Amino acid sequence: MSISFKELSYVYDLGMPYAHKALDNINLDIVEGKITAIIGETGSGKSTLVEHLNGLLMPTSGRLEILDHELIANQKHRFLKALRKDVGLVFQFSEYQLFEETIIKDVMFGPKNFGYSEEECKKRAIDALTLVGIGPKYYDVSPLEISGGQKRRIAIAGILAIDPQIIVLDEPTAGLDPMGGKEIINLFVNLNKKLNKTIIIVTHDNEMVYNYCDNTVVLVDGKIAYNGPTLDLFNRKELLDEYNLLQPQIVTLKNELRDNGFTVSSDARTIDDVVNEISRQVR
Description:
Helix content is 39%, strand content 22%. The chain has eleven helices and ten strands. The protein has helices at residues 46-50, 80-86, 103-113, 118-131, 148-160, 178-195, 206-212, 230-234, 237-242, 249-259, 271-282, and strands at residues 3-12, 20-30, 35-39, 61-66, 69-72, 87-90, 166-170, 198-202, 215-220, 223-229. A six-stranded mixed sheet has the order 6-7-8-3-9-10. α3 (103-113) crosses α4 (118-131).
């Protein structure tokens, strides 16, 4: 396992009268090379959990092992810069962090911070911008003069230019139209399939989770309620009811078809998969 939480807890405002335990004795392994979703109701601890992955938060107790790094409660850590090169965190509305004069300079900022030469920084920036679909005509444009969707792509390019092994996305499709959201998710699916990047997605979008994620972690009140294959979770209505999760529309359709005498595989994830199975039975 490349990521392992071991009895990790986190308390906001520790020692204060209004202290709040956001994570409670988390034991969790996240599989390397897979796409994993972190889901749960608002306030369940999702963002707090992933902010430990590159050292933005430190455990109040317990520890986190990630790649060759280890974060241990109440210990000083001198390797955070190396950790943040290995783990890229794309914040919700990360486009608000754009600050440079031009797009190319903004994407070059990360590699420069890690000591790469000017030439290497520019190459990495161009490669990353190409991956997210931003062409040369935009390189010298101010990041404040483009659309919201383009800003999101540039913020993502800034992370990709560092070439992290693990990419963490906090609500990556928030505020985007459906087509823009699908394009962003497909980008990370391709990075996972072609470059074997480990992708971790915090989201409320169960449709996206069902369609794209190999494994799913459910948080309830700062505790792990479920950790396993995505299909196993969403094909079990009793678990969805227990964790107050909406059933994806494609699962609802499959259940209605089964109620009407059709056989539909649990592995069928898309409408095309379902149509093909039903077409064979009708013929």
